[in-house]
Structures are given as C-alpha cells and as structure tokens.
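User: Structure with magnesium ion, tokens only please.
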Amino acid sequence: MIIACPCALVLATPMSVMVATGKGATFGVLFMDAESIETMRLVDTLVVDITGTLTEGRPQLTDVITVNGWSEEELLSVAAGLERNSEHPLAEAIVSGAEDRGFEPVKSEYFESHTGRGVSGKISGQQILLGNKRLLQSFGVSSDDLERKVENLRAEGKTAMYVAIGAKAAGILSVSDPIKETSAEAIDKLHQAGIRIVMLTGDNQGTANAVADKLGIDDFVAEVMPADKARAVKELQEKGKVVAMAGDGINDAPALAQAQVGIAMGTGTDVAMESARVTLVKGDLRGIVRAALLSKATMRNIKQNLFFAFIYNAMGVPIAAGVLYPVFGLLLSPMI
Ligand code: ADP
Ligand code: MG
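Assistant:
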C-alpha cells in the first residue's frame, strides 16, 4: 500500500503537465515551460490587446465619408493604392473594401509607413495621408472638418481613419472588427476568478471606450504606441501586480516577454508565439481561465506528491534501518 500510493502520485505530476501540453487541442492551452504553469495561478491582472485578441482580427471596411468634393470612388481608389503597400490589418480591410465595391486601386508613386499612426504617399503628384489624427498633425494638416463625424463612428466602437489629399482633409474611412463570440464569457469568468482586465490599444480613446463598455473591461489605455506596450506592463508590475499579457501581433512581442506570463493567440503571428510561454491554440480567451485553474490544480498536485514522497521516505528509511525489528521483527528491503 505505502509503496503503491506515493508512486501513483509521483507519476501524476508529469501526467498533469502532459494534459496541459500533449492534449493541447482539447484544452486549447499550450504551456512551454513549468514556470509559467506555476506563475499562472498568481496572476491578478490580465493585459489584452484588442485586435485579434478580443476581436476576430479580421476588420471590415464599414463607412466611407467624403468631404471637399471628393467622390467615394476617388477616395477609396487612392486609399487602397496606398494601403496595398502596408501589411497592417487595417490596410487589408481597406484594400478588400475597395475591391468589393468594384474600385481599382491607383498606383502610388511613393509610400511610407508611420508606426502607430498610419501611412503616407504620393499619387498623381499629390500628397496622400491615411491614418489617425497624430499623422495628420505631423504633416500640418487640419482635421477639424471631420472631428464630429469621426467621434460618432468611434462611439460605435469602429476604428475611424482620416484621409487627406494634397494637404487637405478628403474624408473618413471606418473599419470594424467584430468582437469574438467567446470574449464576453471569457471576461466574465476571469472576473469571477478575481482577475482584473486592462486593455491596451493603439486605437483612439473613443473607440477603446466603446469596446471596453461593451465587454465590461475594468480599465484601458488608448493611443499606446507599439513600443510603449511593454512599458505599460512594467508599470503595472511596479505597482505589485502579477501580470499576464495576451496578444497576437508583432507589436505585442516585447510586452509578452515583459509580462510574468506571456500568452499568445495561436491564430496570431509567429513572433508573438515565440515571445510568449503560453499559447492559446485556438485563440480562444476562455483558455486563460482554464490555464489559471489548471495551474492551481497542478500546484496542488505537486504539493501532494511532495508530501507523500516525504512521508514515505520518513517512514520507509527508519523501517529499512530496522527500528521496528526488535519489537515486530519487521524489516524492509533497502531497495524498496
Ligand atoms: P493596434 O495594433 O492597437 O490596433 P496600431 O499601433 O497598429 O494599433 O495603430 C494605431 C492607429 O494608427 C490605428 O488605429 C490607425 O488609426 C493608425 N494606423 C496604423 N497603421 C495604419 C494603416 N496601415 N492605415 C491606416 N491607419 C493606420
Ligand atoms: Mg494590434
């Protein structure tokens, strides 16, 4: 009995690690090392990126608003011409949006990408800007004509981008990325597990507010430049929080590495998965709840194993040495 009991439990330790890794497809959680299994149960704050993490990561062009006499076709053809050069998910949405409406992209003569702000270029000798307010400001172009319309789109949770042609506002393009069906449930369960959720996004305050409201997110930081995501995680850690960060993009990699537990979406970029120690195979946030529960159960299991292993040794060694021999005539082979 005494022999069988500890053996089974000691064996149970590597098995529970295998449940987390080997059967990744059923749990949807892949742990890359033992340390993250241990740390996961201590996490009190989850930092998430919006695009691809809370949302599907497949934004669609929804609204095209023009000003100063430009037509929808002119605006979209120029925008798509520029965005063909960009790999941003927003760019993809604009290019397919133009195609779906039957508009041909106009070839750009020059193209430049401005991280966290947008893109610029030259088409038919005219300067084209497409991105957020910061981008227009850095080129000295006013966006005053568009402000109210942009706010309305953002209040609906859409990402609104300004278009300027030849140093003047030309219109707005808005893109919407549907929230994953599973996000609301995941957030509810994380809350029940006592985990606070903080959203980080490069998007505008208005859009972030609408998304946070919709999902009941505790806190958010909007207009975060990609390089500042890791710093935002560090600031939370300095306040004593144990932070898990979930993200999918190239931009998220430094923050994933900074967090105590980096969680990559299996549906995201390879860079994110390489920086993270935990991967949600199906990109389903509910996996984080499971990971936290699994971490608690595994640590309990490991402690039980250690307890039984010590008890077994504490009893077995003296018996083998012959403490019970004089009274009961009992001896244990030292091999056992
Ligand atoms: P996130 O990854 O959080 O969505 P980014 O830092 O990639 O944010 O982008 C921040 C903002 O910069 C976007 O919301 C958008 O307004 C603008 N932007 C970035 N890239 C592009 C692009 N290729 N075309 C248009 N706008 C862009
Ligand atoms: Mg992103």
